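@channel sequence for tomorrow's demo:
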Amino acid sequence: MLKKQMTAAYQYSYVRLVLNYYTLFETIGEEPVIPDRIIAYCRQLNGLLKEHFSGKDVEEGLLKLREDITHEVEVLTSYTDCFQIYEYVLNRLERKFMTLPETGHDDESFAMRLTGFVRDTRETAVMNGRIRQIIGQLPVRLTKQKFFSLVMEGLSVYIGSPLENLKDMMYTLRTESMTKLPLGMEEGHKDLFELLEQFRHEDYTNMTAEGYEEASSKLAIACQGLIDESGLYIMLQEIINDFCVLVFARPEAVIDVKEEELYCSMVGEILDKFEKEDYSAAKEEFFDRLTQLEGRQEAYYERYLRTELPEESDEWNKDPDYVKAVNVDRLLSGSSFVELKGRNEKKEAGEAEETAVVDRPYLEKTAKEYFEELSEVFSGVSRPVVRAIMAKVLSDLPVYFNSIEEIQAYIEGSLKSCLDEAEKETCKELLEELMDDENKLV
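structure tokens (generated this afternoon):
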């Protein structure tokens, strides 16, 4: 059974690697500017592919490269999270410098419209998603203590849940509220780091129209750059993941020699052009072979899905072949940055934690630590930024309202507490867009 599964995984990943590797090659050749770090990682990948095809063991170097790419994306995601905070602030300043039409809704009727939008679905997950999106756009006028009590209320749903669930939520809250930023954010991203510092120290209360235009323009350019760079890293990681599957599955895979030669020759040709920095189109013969791969991905993946691994246990975890098979399964799960199982990982170490559940004292201790971190962040930024962070955190929390009336009261209270009409109108406009976009999907 393991041979069948590993063979299908090997064939599937080999085909994907050929296709994605050529796409990466084309992208590098077509893009006018590619960050130096991406070029360096491409060279590392090329070197590992060359070693692999010459018969060398590249597992350690490949896993290190995968780890490095994961860290790079973690850094870029942190920049994106930070810039979203400042985008929130700038959005709410827009009407101070531009004349835009009013939405024409008073607070009560608009709150009723939003509540109707929340109720206009039978699916609880969709309803909760809408509530969180609304909370993320509403004006925030909360004292620090009131905000902390709302966060505590939201986190209380984790009482009785596994510790891991709460830890995942705290990780999200910390990364999206700028309390936990990865190491090395400045390294290789000097321009982004300097822009972040500029936004951190900006005086938004006294911002001029010229300052607003400049900040908005810089933010838009930075965000587009982050999207482009993240896309390249994801493309690289997909290739690395399939390369890992080849390395893990090869000992068990049984594959026709001619089929392997086809894939190997295609990767070799791309690698050769990559190393020569010859980004001209491949020969017609290469594209003829490329067409031979059509439909293979789907067929191999279906074959892979037909077999299942035995359920994880302490006994199975001692088998290195089983651990590799688990990692192949994770690599083919569709999550590019999934954590892999260590070869010598002991299940016992985390067993107590896996069975432990969150109780009130543990939750209070966890929340207290987070609130101290948040207070430190709040002390170093201006009030509009504090409000943006609060909105982001509240929108990340599990929904803690007990009734639709509570939701409507919260929405109405948020709107009425905002005396800045320009900001309020912007919030209403953004919420109108949210409702329109959702209705289009329906």
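heads up for whoever presents: DSSP finds 20 helices and no strands in the chain.
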